[in-house]
Amino acid sequence: MTASILIIAAFMIIPMIVGLVSAKQSVATSEDFFVQGRGMGSVAVFFTVAATWWSAFAFLGSNATFYTNGPVYLTALAWNLLFGLMYYWVGKRVWFLGKRFNYLTPSDLLGDFYNSEALRIVVAAIALVFTIPYLQIQLTGGAYLIEVASGGVIKFWLAALLFYFVIIVYVWVGGIRAIAWTDVIYGALLFFGMMYAGYYISSQVGGPGALFAQLQASSPAHLTLPGPNGSMGYPMWFSLFLITAVGAFMGPQIWLRMYSVKSGRLFNLMPFLLGVAAFAYVGSILSGYTGVLLEPGVANPDQILPIMLMKYAPFVLASLILAAGASAAMSTANSQIHAVSTIVTMDIYQRYIDRNASQARIVSVGRWSLVLFSLIAYVMALTVPGVLVTIGIAALAGTAQLIVPTVGAITWRRAHPMAAIWGLLAGVACVLLMTFVPAFRAPLGYHAGVWGLLLNSAVFVVLSLCLQRHDRQVVERFAEARDDYDAEYHPETLDDGRAPLTEVTPATSAR
Amino acid sequence: FTPLKLALYAGILLGFVMLESPLVMLANMADPFVLGMPFLFFWNLLWWSVITLLFLVGYWCNWGSRS
């Protein structure tokens, strides 16, 4: 027991020390606090993107889904690949525009390209409203794991409080730089934890081969779609693939991890690195399926991995793996709190309350926003129940809607502001209607987020084709930026024989 | 598209079609076990590894671009 408490203490204190040490390089400017002066290097970028993207949803939710619904979560291999591909194809263009026009938030890019204050507000609202429930499930998952790992000595409410205290301390001091370096620890721990948990737990039934053979004999429905409950067939397979990847990619915390990158070269490698990281899900397959054999009938499937670890693994090993699970939650929560704080500070405070705020004042508002939104998420975690994956997917379906105007902004000069606004509103309304009104739930088995994206895209394309933009100056400014991007990275697409640029130079600020 | 870029993106698209189009239901079976795992799992790991490898090729050849 003492060893377990020491492991949890180390898990809390070591990242805090790393965060505080890395914060010594910080300067008190908004660009440093929110995007590390756009100078984040390759190791930090990979780990902070991967650890931010892999959350309690991945660590606990994956085991739970294999345990209750069979192989539908196997589509995670493909959604990781899609996320990586988008990080290269969309992310690199967003990074280029962000560097040129000094963007910090999703609203900056979309509000600037579409030249619309209303769209800026709609985008900020979507990013805020749908990020907070996802933040809540990190806290719920992480605090639960700490409670179990401590053998119940640290109660849920106290674990949640400690969880956020640690995050606030290092993010307050170091901003995104501190987050990125703590994410290196969290990321390494979470990938080790997922893989080793699967290996260790499945060895209780004779290893992976024996596990699958026994499962085929005792519960063959667990090995094929639509799973033992008959509810997770192809429509949900495709829905999870699309909504999880796009929704997470469009989260404000990932936008910051596009803007922060130092070199365009890194975007070329990220799809491969993120693809390789997906192999950790093999650990979840083994853990979840071993649970079907050893511990059938667990009421809350999110608890299947902790229950098995506490029963079949030495207490210290169990605590270490559970701390790895808490890492998955913490590395997502720290980024989300920071991203929400960025939106509140830059999109609301600086734009509508004090346009002439000093850099020190902006950083101060950002820091207090961290505390405020941590408190909101803490109260929600204590009062709002729910299954991690269910809440997570609903939240991701909302942020996923931002992909339509984003792709429009980086590829299509006809993309119209009214099309972007009405497309987003239609998509979000569709998601909310199908999520909260049982009569409309999941037509043809596809998740609300898929229908929202379809409606959003249709409205966006039709209205853009019907309406004409009259702000030629803005359209031309972006067309020129896109041409410069192509000249730099894809010269084969240009017909004027221009030489590649040598660097991205900041131009007119959007602010 | 340069020929290299075309081949690269076509390969990636084929991989995603095999993993996420309704074609995946043709692989939706436990038997035969391949490498000790049900066929559906083998199918997913196979195409996951193909796409991941293509991502590495993409990095090596600058994603088929001429720069």
From TrEMBL, chain A:
Its main location: membrane. It catalyses: L-proline(in) + Na(+)(in) = L-proline(out) + Na(+)(out). This is Sodium:solute symporter family protein. Belongs to the sodium:solute symporter (SSF) (TC 2.A.21) family. GO terms for cellular component: plasma membrane. The chain crosses the membrane at residues 6-23, 43-60, 72-90, 118-136, 156-173, 180-201, 236-256, 268-292, 312-330, 360-381, 387-412, 419-440, 446-467. Residues 490-511 are annotated as: Disordered. It comes from the Bacteria. CDD domains: SLC5sbd. One of its GO terms (biological process) is sodium ion transport. It is a multi-pass membrane protein. It comes from Ectopseudomonas alcaliphila. InterPro entries: Na/Glc_symporter_sf, Na/solute_symporter, Sodium:Solute_Symporter. Keywords: Cell membrane, Ion transport, Membrane, Sodium, Sodium transport, Symport, Transmembrane, Transmembrane helix, Transport. The lineage of its organism: Bacteria, Pseudomonadati, Pseudomonadota, Gammaproteobacteria, Pseudomonadales.
